[in-house]
Amino acid sequence: MKKLINDPQDVVSEMLQGLVAANPGKLKLIPDKRIVLRSDCPIKDKVTIVTGSGSGHEPDQAWLVGEGMLDVACPGDVFAAPTMDAVYEATRVSASDKGVLYLVKNFSGDRMSFDMAREMAEADGIRVETVLVNEDVAVEDSTYTAGRRGLAGAIFVYKIVGARAEEKASIEELKELGERVNANVRSMGVALTSCTMPAKGSPTFDLGEDEMELGVGIHGEPGTKRIKMKAVDEVVNDLLERITSDIPFQRGDELAVMVNGLGGSPISELYIVYRKVDEYLKGKGMRVFRSYVGEYVTSLDMAGCSVSLLRVDEEMKRLLLEPADIPLRIL
Amino acid sequence: MKKLINDPQDVVSEMLQGLVAANPGKLKLIPDKRIVLRSDCPIKDKVTIVTGSGSGHEPDQAWLVGEGMLDVACPGDVFAAPTMDAVYEATRVSASDKGVLYLVKNFSGDRMSFDMAREMAEADGIRVETVLVNEDVAVEDSTYTAGRRGLAGAIFVYKIVGARAEEKASIEELKELGERVNANVRSMGVALTSCTMPAKGSPTFDLGEDEMELGVGIHGEPGTKRIKMKAVDEVVNDLLERITSDIPFQRGDELAVMVNGLGGSPISELYIVYRKVDEYLKGKGMRVFRSYVGEYVTSLDMAGCSVSLLRVDEEMKRLLLEPADIPLRIL
User: Does A268 sit within 8 Å of B11, measured CB to CB?
Assistant: First the structure.
């Protein structure tokens, strides 16, 4: 294992310390619970947007905390759900008078922590609602999930709901909006390699030199099938056939498109993927409203990508273009 | 080799096609010469900013083309300089009445192409000036260079000069500004793994399971020394001792700080690096004006990072904060 780390046990704490150090005045950290939140949280008259999941998916969650997007992130250990205690504490310290909305990717451990924290918060008189994100078309049930998994399509839910929350929308409206985004987004991934967890030090699964895993999740859990390596244009075709037939997406649809790197694939390759996605969608008579190519929800150092399509309406389009002042900036 | 590609020979062309497809109306591509330029180029009364180097360093160069930064990028083959023909053509089609400024990282092949293109353009009556970037403190001469190499510190030169060019500054002023930035920035890198060129398919050099290479360049060319793997805090300390003693940087200096991923290291690790950089600099009485953590100038899929420090003055600070409308955005 070759990583830029100190003690593998300190990876999550130290990455969050680095994140907060790099964003002085904007973020604060509750170190013992490993909660990252906006410095100005809770914000009067604004529904608090909270998410959380295992670590190892960076920049997912903590890098998306800031004005116009998330208020709070609760990162668990690598590939492990945040504790109920952490989610409850996050809810308690961030709750505004308008309530707290949880945005949760559908993994069993995450759901359990958020459900229990919600019960505890409600007992304190805090209004809590939940939007589940489960847009992966690859598998119905898997290692970590009952029902469909949440993948990088969650970013669209965070962005759109976060932008509308900033406009002081009600919790009922935000919940409807988040569920509408989730209902209109579909994703599927492919892995070329496994990933290596810092505390384990060896790959979490084996994949032959000439193999790739279609329909992979974000922890390297098994997908729909293992296939021989082939040209990326063919792989993209496979992914898009599955994704577009699911809702289904149709001629005339206007889409936000995400090509999400899983951590180990260079940006050059993600754009080679986008090239084919763009060509495929145009060939089917669909229009691309806006494209997102980069790393959003990763699996540590896994090589591979996922593709997400969101059928946008006028409200979503407007909210996607609103600014978000989050750590995930480049310049 | 496991990559999301089609024919290895088409990697550069197809990534650029994807880039332009993902940025409709903003970028144009001259396919046979593989030149990427702003759609509105040349711009009257604005010095044209041109860069170019081997591919494989994405998002470097082509992803930085847009309002407020670069006008033109000339990517060569992977780890190979752009041809003189491509640079000349790029100059010819983009030249404004105020002239053309080349920003070139100091690698011998790149310099040769830009020097020859400049002669040809000058013969056509085009005013051309060059700023060389050579801020790597690790080695004086190396495989690809006479003198010091240019690393990710070049991003600061592009950003600051690009923002000032947008304000219609003269070519003399921009050249002075670029040289001032270069004189105040220093960088050094460390590699944990080699990288794999698409057309070769195997690692470009060998590094033992327990070894890391200090002072590495952006093509995996040898650095100052090969050392045993150790905790990242110690590695960062080694890098910063070398970097800060070079100008030297001093107590009271105000700095822009970049932790640049080389391609294969997850963002979580880059922030663990930043954590120590921040602590080190504060311990020395230096102030961080702004931090940049992410992938800027990569070596394909190499694991590792470089650290760059720029001593900023008031003009640089103002220009660093100006917006840049470039493909390298996330949301």
Answer: yes
Q: pLDDT below 50 — which residues of chain A?
A: none
Of the candidates B46, B148, B149, B219, the residue annotated as catalytic is B219
Question: Do residues A290 and A31 lie in contact, with contact meaning Cβ atoms separated by under 8 Å?
Answer: no
Q: Specify the pTM.
A: 0.96
For A230-246, write each residue's pLDDT tens digit.
Answer: 999 999 999 999 999 99
Q: Is A10-179 CATH 3.40.50.10440?
A: yes
Interface residue A123 vs chain B (CB under 8 A): no
pLDDT of residue A1: 72
Contacts of B22 in chain A (CB under 8 A): 271, 274, 278, 291, 293
Residue B295's pLDDT is what? 96
Interface-testing mutation among A207, A226, A271, with chain B (most B C-beta atoms within 10 A):
A271
Residue B172, number of CB atoms within 10 A of its CB: 11
B283 touches chain A (CB under 8 A): no
Q: Does domain A185-320 have CATH number 1.50.10.20?
A: no
Q: Which residues contact B37 (CB under 8 A, 6 or more apart)?
A: B27, B28, B30, B65, B71, B72, B73, B90, B93, B94
Taking CA–CA distances from A5, the nearest residue in chain B reads B232
Cβ–Cβ below 8 Å for B5 and A231: yes
Q: What percent of chain B has pLDDT over 70?
A: 99
For residue range B41-52, what is the model confidence (pLDDT) as tens digits?
A: 999 999 999 999
3-state secondary structure of B302: strand
Alpha carbon of B245: minimum distance to chain A alpha carbons (Å): 23
Stretches in chain B below the pLDDT threshold 70: none
ipTM exceeding cut-off 0.90 for this assembly: yes
* Burial of residue A315 (number of CB atoms within 10 Å: 0-12, 13-18, 19+): middle
Domain coordinates of chain B in residue numbers? 10-179, 185-320
Longest CA–CA separation in chain B, Å: 56
Distance between A226 CA and the closest CA of chain B, angstroms: 14
- Torsion-angle region of residue A252: left (phi > 0), alpha (psi -120 to 50) or beta? left
